[in-house]
Every structure is written in structure tokens, then in C-alpha cells.
Amino acid sequence: MRILFAGTPEVAVTSLDHLVDAGFDVAAVLTRPDAPLGRKRVLTPSPVAQRAEELGLQIVKAAKIDAQVTEQLTALDLDAAAIVAYGGLVPQDALQVPRHGWINLHFSLLPQWRGAAPVQHAIIFGDDITGAVTFQLETGLDTGPVFGQVTEPIGAMDTAGALLQRLSDSGSRLLVDTLQALDAGVARPEPQTGSGSYAPKITDADAQLDFTRPATEIRRRAHGTSPFPGPWIKVADGRFKFGALREHPQVTDLAPGQVRIEPGKRPRVLVGTGTWALEPTQIQPPGKKMMDAADWARGLLANGTEVSFA
């Protein structure tokens, strides 16, 4: 089966590897153009582009699938196109290029969480279970009929990054199964049923924490925005950023934003909220790198420094 692979971020690389390993003829890889990264804003190929180059695959870089790109894809004589987080719309003319159309791997249980950030929203809104589906791409936003799905429980300490890593693996296997079923003529997509919900792109403002809110709500927001853009609070000299947060329902004697360091071989940082305490596992003070919370706590204990996140 001759296919196009379309994807851009790291989470899509796993699917590309699975498709190559499964023996699909990947005619080309479509990805977003190089983007400026780091403080020096160095133009850098996408993770998918870097992997495609390592695999010796033809690469098409496009911010938009216009008439010229569509003509390039038509010349590839494609049976199908597999798309995983490409980051751009596929117009109707391009949808009709592959004989079997475009098969999208989406990291939610559609119609729940259509849009750019489904895993992040599933965590923020407290879903117990999420998953991944393969569906036939249409011009509507994640509205096409579904070929198959896999499910994944959301744990209390799951961040969006950790959950996406697991889903990228199980979802990649699902994508391979779907394309193999298409090739064998036995794929049977089913229309989506029920009302959907929208998961727009996560912004920096979405990642700001408010320690006057309930602990569970704060933890979900922190985990849903980790590792990017990363949960944060504003203090007088800049921002504190956080890794995962652990809830301590038994600790209710701290005011919102009040920080207590519990000494020991591995000091523990507790922060008060509107309900009970949270324990950051990692902390990034203003102007410094992310560090283990216990290491940050040792520094405070040694210097006798007091900190508040209120």
C-alpha cells in the first residue's frame, strides 16, 4: 500500500516509525516548514522532518496545502494518506487525491474533544478515560466516520506529555491496523454519534495557576498544560513554573498560596489551596532551570528563606 504520511510534532514520529516497520510504502512525508526555536531562534526542522530524513524519505514542507502541494501529492499515485497532528487543514481537492482518502489518528474518543488539544482538555476537565481513534478525514473539524479506537485511563499523576506518549504508541498500532484493513477491503467506518466538545489550542494564559482554587482543579490544570506551555504563577521577580502536583487531602491547615517546607532526608514542599495542600514534584524558580522540588527545598532550608505563592 502506497501512502503519504502527514505529521509535524514529536508525538507523530511514533506513527511514522510504526508504518515504516509495518512495511507500508511511504511515498513522501508532509510536514510543516522549519520553525525558529530557542533563544537564538534557529530555524529547525520539525521532529517528523528530522525522522523522515533519517529514514531517507521524500519530504514535502508546507504551511498550507495549496494547489501546488496538491499537485505534488497527486503525482505520488497514493492509495491513502495517514495524518497525525500535521497542524493544518486539508482542503477538499487534496482529500480526494488518495484512493482511500485521508485517515486521521486523533487523540480523543470522538466526538469528545474535537480540535487541537484533546488530551490537554481531557485532563483539565477531569475525564477518567481518554483514548485515540482513526477516522476518515472530512472538511468538518474531526467529524468523519470512525474506523476504530483504543482507550487509556487517566491517572492522578498523568501529565499531558506522559499521556500523549502512551497514546502515541497505542494509537500508532491502531493506525497500522486501520490501513491494513483498508488495504484488505475489510475496513468499516461507523458514523460518530452524540454531541461533541471542542478542544482549542492551549495558550500560556490557560497554564496560569490560582492557588485560591480547589486543589483538584489546580492539579488538573497543571497536568493538562505540562510540559507545554507549563503551569506557572506570577511572583514579584518573575514566574515560578511547576512539574506534576500531588494532592494531600489530609493537609488542610495552609492558607491558599502558603508554602511549607517539611524537613527530612528528602524535604517536601507543600502549598495551600482553596481546599487542601498540593505537593509540587518539580519547581522552576524565576531565571533558573527546572529542578527537583526536594533540591529547591534544601536550598531554602539552608538559607532560611521563606517563600509564598499567594
TrEMBL record:
Enzyme superclass (EC): transferase
EC number: 2.1.2.9
Residues reported in the UniProt entry to bind (6S)-5,6,7,8-tetrahydrofolate: S108, L109, L110, P111
SUPFAM superfamilies noted in UniProt: FMT C-terminal domain-like, Formyltransferase
Source superkingdom: Bacteria
InterPro entries (UniProt xref): Fmt, Formyl_trans_C, Formyl_transf_N, Formyl_transf_N_sf, Formyl_transferase-like_C_sf, Met-tRNA-FMT_C, Met-tRNA-FMT_N
Entry-linked Pfam families: Formyl_trans_C, Formyl_trans_N
Record-level GO cellular component terms: cytosol
Catalysed reactions, as listed in the record: L-methionyl-tRNA(fMet) + (6R)-10-formyltetrahydrofolate = N-formyl-L-methionyl-tRNA(fMet) + (6S)-5,6,7,8-tetrahydrofolate + H(+)
Record keywords: Protein biosynthesis, Transferase
Cross-referenced CDD domains: FMT_core_Met-tRNA-FMT_N (cd08646), Met_tRNA_FMT_C (cd08704)
An annotated Gene Ontology molecular function: methionyl-tRNA formyltransferase activity
Location of the Formyl transferase N-terminal domain: 1-178
Domain Formyl transferase C-terminal residue range list: 201-300
Listed NCBIfam families: fmt
Family: Belongs to the Fmt family.
Function per UniProt: Attaches a formyl group to the free amino group of methionyl-tRNA(fMet). The formyl group appears to play a dual role in the initiator identity of N-formylmethionyl-tRNA by promoting its recognition by IF2 and preventing the misappropriation of this tRNA by the elongation apparatus.
HAMAP family membership: Formyl_trans
Designated name of the protein: Methionyl-tRNA formyltransferase
Annotated gene: fmt
